Structure formats: structure tokens, C-alpha cells
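ok so for the tutorial part 2 we go from a plain amino acid sequence to predicted C-alpha cells. step 1 is just haveing the sequence, like this:
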Amino acid sequence: MCCKCLPWSGFGCAKPSTLHAILCPCPLANASQQLILRDATRYGPGHDASARHDFTLANPVIERAYRSLRRRLYKSGVAGGLPADRDFSLGVPFGFEPALSATPRVAAMIHMFHPELAAEFALLLHHLPDNAAVLISTDTQAKRRDILAAFGTWDKGAVEVRIVPNRGRDMAPKLTSFTDRYAEFDLVLFLHSKKTEFSTAGEGWRELLLGGLCGSDTVVRSILALFEADPALGLVFPQHHEPIRPFTGWEYNFAAARALGRRMGVELRRDGMIEFPSGSMFWARPAALAPILVLGLTADDFPEEAAQTDATTAHAIERLFALAAELAGFGWLKVAAPACYANRETIVIPRSAADLEAFIQRPRLRLRDTMVQQPRLR
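step 2 — the prediction. this is what the C-alpha cells look like for a chain of 378 residues:
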């Protein structure tokens, strides 16, 4: 038993059993994990690791054990980022009316797989500045027609809808469908028509993400003011949805992330704290995404859609956005709409420009130290 297995010891995790391999990310589990991965091939092409993961969650007994023990693992400090009681976020909207010296050039890039949500997004995006452009990807012509109809009364910037392959969920479209246009904008808001159907833990997740990024005029103005106040800020994303927090470690995505990290010029470490926009919705300066965009990924780099819930290229990339911003020379911050969270003790609402500056200047988790292996001193 390794030190990282200790939180599991109450479950009889004294050897690399099947249950140990499913639940524990420690090196001892890796060998038996590989056996399960090979067994998963019987589920057919495109399933590989994610088939094993879906199969596990389909068993209600294992699912309950998985969620209970992952919460224990998170509390032990082994997985994910900072513990919840030290993970501070900036409350939006601010408690004062921030001044903007200029209106940035803004676009919203949305992958709209579920066109029945298009009208909801059309209403929300009216909170963006008047010059905002809307860039939408979807996977069929029929959906494209429905989306354009939902945006029929849009009176701000232009709306463009492009057809993309149904691969890589929202991630592949983020990185492939409108990259030719990102340089036109100072800031891009990345959204998607998120539905979390595989777990009740995802209930309310879309509403939380959208509420913290563009839920009102004052939320949007606060975030634009944040970018203006901190020119080195490259990425702003919502605090983790509380039911999802126990699953914000590497999960089954480290191997794929490590391969991508090497292409980005870094060697990732598995044992350090990580941070990322869980749910993959965020505001960004396009330059902050350069380390990922320059990889030149295409839809073919993502597996065919097979109802995966983890262990895909998309899940690996999601975990690299905040690190990519740091590698590009930018910082990142998390925001939270207080009404969306039960625990609000770590949500800091600035009441003045001085409060905002104080939050910007406070020490932050540095992912280049915690996610990247450092050279050994000889």
C-alpha cells in the first residue's frame, strides 16, 4: 500500500485489486488499471478508457463507493487544487460600479450541440457589450437553422454559425472552428450548451457557469473591469461547482495531458495541485490560449462520440487551460456568483477599486510550480 492509498485503507485497499484500480490514482494501482483498460476493448471502438469508466459508474454500488471515497481523497489533499476552505474566488457582480476606460472588442464562442438551449443563450448574451460578435458551432444544418432562428432578434454584432464534426464535444470546436477569428478580439467568452446527463452531480452546473460569466449586465461589466485592471490576466473562469469539486483532480486524464504537455514544452507532474475551468466555460484573452492553439489540433485528434464521461482528449485539454495561460505569460483568476454556492466564506466581493486591486495582488497558486516538474539540482 502506498501513502496515497491511506484514505482508501478503510475499504480494504491493501493490494492492487480491481476496486483499487478503479478508485485510486496512485502508482500501485497503475498495473491493475492497465488490465481493466485492456478489458474495456470489448465495448467497441472509441471507448477504450472511457468505456471502463462508464461501465464502472453504471454499477450503482461502485458509483456510490467511488463518489464517497473520492470526496475523502479530496479532503486528504491528494487530488485536485487547493482545499475548499483556502480556494478564494472573486465575487461577481462587484459591490461597486466599476469604471471602464474603453469597451473591449468581445466575442462569444459557443458550441451549440443542443439547439433547444439557443434561445436561453440568446437572452444571456444580451448582457455583452453592443459590439459583441457571436460565433457558434454545431454539427448539422438542421441545428444551424434552429440556432439562427433563435437569434433572429439579435441586434448586437454579427452571428456566424459553422458546421463541425460531432467529435470532441465542445473542446474540438473551441480549438478548431473559429481560430481564424480569435485575433480580431480582445476577449473571447467560451460557452457551450452543457447538459450533464450521466450524473445528478451536474444538476445546476450550466446555470452556475453561465451565471458567473454572463448572468447579468453587472456580472459582465465586473469581469471586463477585472481584465482592464489587470493587463496580465489571461483567463477568468468560475469557481468549481460544489458537487463536482471532488472530481477536479487528474482523474483518468493524466497520460493524455502529459503527452499534450510535452508538445507544449513541459513535463507534467502527477502529484502536485492542479487548477482548471471545470465545465470548460471561461473568458480569455486569445493570446493566453496560444500554447494550446499552436498545437494545431484538428477534429481527428479527438475520439468519435461515444457518450464518454472522462478519459478523453477533451478532458485532458480542459485541465491544461490555466497552465497554458501561465506558460503564455498570463495569470488566471476564479469568479463566483455567490447565490450559486452554499459555501460562500471564500468568495470575496470587492466594495471598491482598492478592494479589487488588493485581490488581484494577493498571492495565487502558481501552476508552473505545482503542475510542472522542476529541474533537479545536481
